[in-house]
Design brief:
The protein is 15% helix and 35% strand. The protein is α+β, with helices and mostly antiparallel strands.
Length: 179
């Protein structure tokens, strides 16, 4: 079951959901709009390597916005900190943003119960597109789960700002177990 807008509001007020800052105008019939935070990351290595930490460069989105370029992966973040120990969150790009040719969070929309923080957004434009800090970039839906809950305690917990991939930590851990 998916939470309705009024239930999202009730859950944010009674603590079953954490959304900060919470603004009632961001509530939709069955989702909550999240906005683009002011910082973007891009990878600077010519080849991204899944088995190691990769270098990144940070860009602050100015008052006049920032033009995203095709063929580049941008890591953005939500302005809001979102999380729940009760519901499963899913984040998708808004249809209005998709109609501008911007792919948002295509490969990893699901969040874990127990994650709390700013969400990293994978942004990929079809053509040059000017984006602005604070623009409505995505929407989060919340689903009821059944069964025992094992709260998230992973490598992105309490994220602030965009987070580059930490996949290499999983590889190192697997290698350590195997040896």
């Amino acid at each position: 079951m998916i939470l309705t807008g009024p239930e999202i509001t009730a859950a944010a007020h009674d603590g079953r959901l954490a959304i900060s800052p919470f603004e009632s105008g961001q509530v939709n019939p069955n989702s909550y709009n999240v906005r683009l935070g002011p910082t973007l990351l891009t990878y600077t290595d010519p080849v991204i390597d899944a088995h190691r930490a990769n270098l990144t460069a940070a860009v602050e989105i100015g008052e006049d916005g920032y033009v995203l370029q095709p063929g580049e992966l941008y890591l953005g973040h939500t302005l809001e900190q979102v999380g729940s120990d009760t519901f499963v969150p899913l984040l998708f790009g808004r249809s209005s943003v998709g109609r501008l040719g911007l792919f948002v969070e295509i490969t990893a929309p699901i969040g874990d119960i127990g994650f709390h923080g700013q969400w990293t957004l994978m942004l990929s434009p079809i053509r040059p597109l000017r984006v602005y800090a604070g623009m409505k970039i995505g929407q989060i839906m919340f689903f009821v789960s059944t069964g025992d809950v094992d709260l998230y305690a992973g490598k992105y917990q309490a994220a602030e700002g965009p987070q580059s991939s930490r996949y290499w930590r999983d590889v190192a851990r697997v290698g350590a177990v195997a040896s």
